[in-house]
Model the fold of this input.
Amino acid sequence: MEKNLKRATLCIRGGWEPKNGEPVEPPIVQSTTFKYDNSEEMAQLFDLKKEGYFYSRLQNPTNDVVAKKIAQLEGGVGCLLTSSGQAANFFAVFNICEAGSHIVASTEIYGGTYNLFGVTMKKMGIDCTFVNPEASDEEIQQAFRPNTRVMFGETISNPGCHVLDIEKFARIAHRNGVPLIVDNTFATPVNCRPFEWGCDIVTHSTTKYLDGHAATVGGAVVDSGQFDWMAHAEKFPGLCTPDASYHGLTYTKAFGKMGYLTKLVAQLMRDLGSIPSPHNSYLLNLGLESLHLRMAQHCRNAQQIAEFLEQQEQVAWIHYCGLKNDAHYSLGQKYLPNGSCGVIAFGLKGDRDTAIRFMDSLRLINIATHVADSRTCVLHPASHTHRQLTDEQLRASGIDPTLIRLSVGIEDVTDLLADIQQALAKC
Ligand SMILES: *Cc1c(COP(=O)(O)O)cnc(C)c1O
Done:
């Protein structure tokens, strides 16, 4: 592949370079297993001494093509696809944590990730301290402990629409000798590449914009290859000391910049098995082919709708970093100069019921447990996705009980504005 191709070109051409007479679309290799002529060759694959396919839980040619495209888009050394965004975030963190480890995470993250870190991983003996991403370096520093292994945030938070100061988080993480993982789901690599700002590992729920058509659930972990694990070897024994389950192989020594991802496949995929089906990866790839066009349209539509909502008497507050009055406008200009995403968070004057009345009055816009998709949809986290969180937890993760998450799609914006207008008239 030519060097330094633009992101729009990579959306279409990345990952797959057909040779003479080969199909232009990556083929769906819907096979669990791969045949070899002699036993020695297969043994070498198991020893990770040779590259090749043997079982689709570990690697599959279709999945690899799509993973490579996402790695190229993010500017990383490699990528692993997972069966969901939840699996991606769990794998990304668990690859460098174990019982007794500690995580520092922004409070401004997706509810599912908040639960994963705060509840489920706690049961595995991994503690998490949530920090207000707007706090000073000194305040955030206080969350770190000797056993902290990773820092975590979201480029644009779901559902609060806050923009992460990635450079600040990277600075604090690195000062403590740990990597920064950023969930880049809402921004997508079209609008932000966190690696350019010091982030070490990027995750995605590909279920959202990368697929974009509400067709497939999936996730991705991308490594920048930049974090120097060996410089902090005592913190990351799983990467920097021999793995007994792989004949004493040391991932960072044997695979260099690919050590982190090799461990992710060889240990976590092997033992926990959360791969996407090749057919889903094929569909994800179709979505990626128009990502650059869709993101531009999502941003144009959302900007117009946010400007409209900001003017409405009934709107109590609104978060969209494209608005000049938004608290995150300048962070948005820095990290997302070409636009952020299609998601807007706002609240109506009144109570929870006002939000419900507004949503029930919409005709074109769907009420859906989905976001970041080509069809415009709304969701009220307090009564839908975040029902399991108490009011206190809701507020701790920056979610106002009146918050309506409006995910602006790529329809004609005049139809969307008309729908919003008629629904507001009924509130
Ligand atoms: C949806 C979402 C996830 C979880 O992804 P799934 O594909 O639904 O498992 C993680 N992070 C963010 C920011 C999300 O929006």
